[in-house]
């Protein structure tokens, strides 16, 4: 039996090269549509709440005349659709309104807290992304441990973020006393100056995300390692790390990007929970605390900005995935 | 270890464990040694023979609160999951059976909803709605689209099967065929899907409770316990660890049960289980 002298080059996934205009436009339109939908939902939800800004501002015992004047002055007597358009219009021009509680511009509070949230979410992504790839590799690549790996990924992905946060806090600050149980940042301090405060929030976000991402990716890994050229390379005795880097990984780039974009969107929402639990000053905890104090301008602006961050993240992920995706042949 | 017995035991372990955990979650309050809502000791006591898991921030027995703390959470989650599954199944039956523009419209709406993380939906819903309603709304918006997709594909396959064509030839009406022929055929899928929706509902319900938008304070509730006792985690870690283990065990076992029911030999992760968006299937 003679073997071929030169190994055939590993096939590369053919990429689309350039994103064609139509899907790009479609993704953009969908993002704008969703953001408009979210803004309507947020506005409607805050409209449904009993009481308005006047009830918060008016001094107890004020007569009806005064209340009516104040309502007129704030423009609250206009029709709801008009007030929605006013509000959405000022959001578009960058005017996010002022807090009812402390009278400070909402934009200031957001600008102060957004970096803190991005630090936690970015840290969690930096940990969860390679971890999910490694877990998916283990689950999708091995045939023997498949039942076990499926169970581990399913179970890990099902864990509520609150549970991982509580368990990590109980172990690392309760039993071991390694990190403080609350992550209160001194005002004005950057989260990077206090890495010990970032540990619990980042770890509790990253853990379920890694399992969730891996459970979505494992199928793609299992499909790729069964491709003929991978089996062929294995038969030729190509070392496993080479097979991984040249024969398998390029095919995983597109699903990997999609999964990462999805998990990033979920992470920003889950950050609200972790921030509140650990007292960490991000936009998630701002949304929750302003909900509790019925500070409606802050609730409205924060919810829309958070949704916008999520949707733009998903859009970028979609575009990157479209760029890296193997060209699909029309299947009939 | 007996070779024949081991796989049987292994396959039975998840259903049995799930049944045990669910029984404790639903009826555990009956065995609570102390009142779950009144103080019986000093705050943050470490475990002792009277308080097996110590006491919480207000000196209430942690064990009693954990035993009583699953019912409300599980109740609202089951209601939300059933609603999401029912809406998704109805949509999937319609989209898979009728096809055409109706199917495209339903799928487009589903894809639009799927683009939003369910926790964000829950937060938006919780602005104006009470806890129970917010959990139901978020689970339906975030879960029904996934159910719809799974059911739609199964119905499309069932449409061209022999028993459906036989029923069509017998002259049975659409509603009758959908309810008596197609629905029983996709039943297993729907039951497994209900389990997955229940897991997401539990995640959403517990998240809202942790954020202080859920169960009201004196009530024993696992997620609320996490919120209340986090400040004392360094003094009595059990006050946080015990409800975390209870909540975690419940969700993980339910997810494993759904997975087991779905199929034993499917490639891992090939099913769409979470808020993931897939590109529309071509063809």
UniProtKB/TrEMBL annotation, chain A:
The chain crosses the membrane at residues 21-43, 116-139, 151-178, 198-222, 264-283, 303-323. Keywords: Cell membrane, Membrane, Transmembrane, Transmembrane helix, Transport. PROSITE patterns: ABC_TM1. Residues 114-317 form the ABC transmembrane type-1 domain. The keyword Transport applies. It comes from the Bacteria. Its main location: membrane. It is a multi-pass membrane protein. It is found in: Cell membrane. Pfam families: BPD_transp_1 (PF00528). Belongs to the binding-protein-dependent transport system permease family. This is ABC transporter permease.
TrEMBL record, chain B:
It is found in: Cell membrane. Its main location: membrane. Keywords: Cell membrane, Membrane, Transmembrane, Transmembrane helix, Transport. The keyword Metal-binding does not apply. Residues 74-258 form the ABC transmembrane type-1 domain. The chain crosses the membrane at residues 73-98, 105-128, 134-151, 194-215, 235-262. It comes from the Bacteria. Gene3D superfamilies: MetI-like. It is a multi-pass membrane protein. InterPro entries: BP-dependent_transpt_permease (IPR050366), MetI-like (IPR000515), MetI-like_sf (IPR035906). Belongs to the binding-protein-dependent transport system permease family. PANTHER family: OLIGOPEPTIDE TRANSPORT SYSTEM PERMEASE PROTEIN APPC, PEPTIDE ABC TRANSPORTER PERMEASE PROTEIN. This is ABC transporter permease subunit. It comes from Streptomonospora nanhaiensis.
């Amino acid at each position: 039996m003679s073997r071929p002298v030169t190994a055939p080059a590993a096939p590369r996934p053919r990429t689309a090269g350039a994103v064609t205009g139509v899907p790009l436009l479609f993704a953009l339109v969908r993002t704008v549509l969703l953001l408009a939908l979210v803004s309507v939902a947020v506005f409607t939800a805050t409209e449904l709440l009993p009481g308005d800004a006047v009830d918060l501002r008016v001094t107890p015992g004020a007569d009806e005349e005064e209340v009516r004047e104040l309502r007129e002055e704030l423009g609250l007597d206009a029709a709801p659709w008009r007030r929605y358009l006013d509000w959405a219009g000022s959001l578009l021009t960058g005017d996010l309104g002022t807090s009812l509680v402390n009278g400070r511009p909402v934009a200031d509070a957001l600008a102060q807290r957004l970096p803190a949230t991005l630090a936690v979410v970015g840290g969690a992504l930096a940990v969860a992304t390679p971890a999910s790839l490694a877990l998916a590799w283990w689950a999708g690549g091995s045939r023997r441990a498949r039942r076990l790996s499926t169970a581990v990924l399913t179970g890990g992905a099902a864990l509520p973020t609150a549970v991982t946060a509580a368990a990590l806090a109980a172990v690392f600050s309760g039993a071991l006393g390694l990190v403080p149980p609350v992550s209160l940042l001194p005002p004005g301090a950057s989260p990077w100056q206090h890495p010990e405060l970032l540990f619990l929030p980042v770890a509790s976000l990253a853990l379920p995300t890694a399992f969730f991402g891996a459970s979505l990716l494992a199928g793609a890994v299992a499909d790729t390692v069964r491709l003929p050229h991978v089996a062929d390379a294995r038969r030729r005795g190509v070392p496993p790390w080479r097979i991984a880097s040249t024969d398998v990984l390029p095919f995983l780039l597109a699903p990997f990007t999609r999964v990462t974009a999805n998990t990033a969107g979920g992470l920003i929402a889950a950050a609200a929970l972790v921030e509140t639990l650990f007292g960490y000053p991000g936009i998630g905890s701002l949304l929750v605390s302003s909900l509790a104090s019925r500070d409606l301008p802050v609730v409205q602006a924060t919810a829309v900005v958070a949704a916008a961050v999520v949707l733009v993240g998903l859009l970028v992920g979609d575009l990157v995935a479209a760029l890296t995706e193997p060209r699909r042949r029309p299947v009939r | 270890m007996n070779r024949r017995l081991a796989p049987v035991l292994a396959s039975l372990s998840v259903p049995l464990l799930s049944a045990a955990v669910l029984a404790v979650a639903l009826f555990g309050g009956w065995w609570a040694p102390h009142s779950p809502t009144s103080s019986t000791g000093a705050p943050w006591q470490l475990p002792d023979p009277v308080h097996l898991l110590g006491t919480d921030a207000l000196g209430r027995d942690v064990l009693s609160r954990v035993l009583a703390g699953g019912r409300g959470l599980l109740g609202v989650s089951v209601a939300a999951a059933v609603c999401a599954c029912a809406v998704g199944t109805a949509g999937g039956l319609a989209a898979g059976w009728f096809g055409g523009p109706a199917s495209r419209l339903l799928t487009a709406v589903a894809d639009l909803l799927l683009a939003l993380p369910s926790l964000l939906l829950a937060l938006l819903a919780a602005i104006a709605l009470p806890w129970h309603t917010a959990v139901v709304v978020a689970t339906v918006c975030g879960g029904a689209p996934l159910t719809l997709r799974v059911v739609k594909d199964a119905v499309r396959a069932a449409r061209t099967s022999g028993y459906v064509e036989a029923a069509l030839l017998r002259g049975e009406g659409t509603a009758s065929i959908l309810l008596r022929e197609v629905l029983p055929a996709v039943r297993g899928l729907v039951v497994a899907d209900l389990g997955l929706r229940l897991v997401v509902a539990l995640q959403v319900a517990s998240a809202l409770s942790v954020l202080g938008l859920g169960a009201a304070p004196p009530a024993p509730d696992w997620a609320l316990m996490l919120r209340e006792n986090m400040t004392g985690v360094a003094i009595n870690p059990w006050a946080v660890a015990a409800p975390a283990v209870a909540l975690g065990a419940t969700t993980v076992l339910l997810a494993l049960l759904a997975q087991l029911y779905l199929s034993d030999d499917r490639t891992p992760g090939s099913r769409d289980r979470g808020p993931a968006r897939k590109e529309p299937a071509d063809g």
